[in-house]
Amino acid sequence: MIRKKNAFLSLFFLTYTSLTHHILNMTLVKNGVRFELTPKQARFLEFILQYQVRNGYSPTQAEIAQALGFRSLNSVQNYLNILREKGALEKERDTRREVTVNHDLYQTLAHVVKISLLGKVAAGRPIEAVEDPQPIEVPSSFIKPGSQYFALEVRGDSMIEDHICDGDHIVVRSQETANNGDRVVALIDNEATLKRYEHKGGKVILHPANAALSPFEVGPDQSFRIAGVYIGLMRRA
Prior knowledge:
The protein contains 5 helices and 15 strands. It has helices at 19-24, 39-55, 61-68, 73-85, 103-109, and strands at residues 2-4, 13-15, 26-30, 33-35, 89-91, 99-101, 112-122, 134-139, 149-155, 169-174, 183-188, 191-200, 203-207, 216-217, 224-235. The strands form 3 sheets. Strands 2, 7, 8, 9, 10, 11, 12, 13, 14 and 15 form a 10-stranded mixed sheet that branches.
């Protein structure tokens, strides 16, 4: 049985850092006793989980030692015993592979996918999106088959009334069209900004979600395109 310390607030508003953070924010319950994991135990468990997701079976002790830099299999065995005692791991039928991730825990954590964190986007004045892709893990509930997604880090407070804050990571579905009212990542003269989109009378107007700021009208001499539509956000704990 697994109990989360912090449940998701909603599909589009959750606390997030990484898969290790998800593991650390869980309390394991075995035979009525509650257990928590240390950061090293969480990283150890994360490796086994990711290996299982990728290969369909658990790693051997030797594979764990090589991947995590253990010099002795005794250290690996100690971690395995601790995680079994805490209910995170279960006995595997294949004695060579020895353990598997607890079924409930696997179902809770395995549904995380990676997309590219492309850089930063302004929720104020337009700034350049840095094309330096880095992987970031997001809940698979954000991702639908047949579409491409990317993530950006928000800078500024012009979308604060939509609860999109400075430092948040936003998930964006790549597409070049949008409906009026959609929150879009738009490129204006190759600089990215996050705003609500309006197309009216042949003009494009980008609206902030901040009463202290005014809408921005794209000029006739400016290049403009939609890079994607906002799907949700992840906030660092």
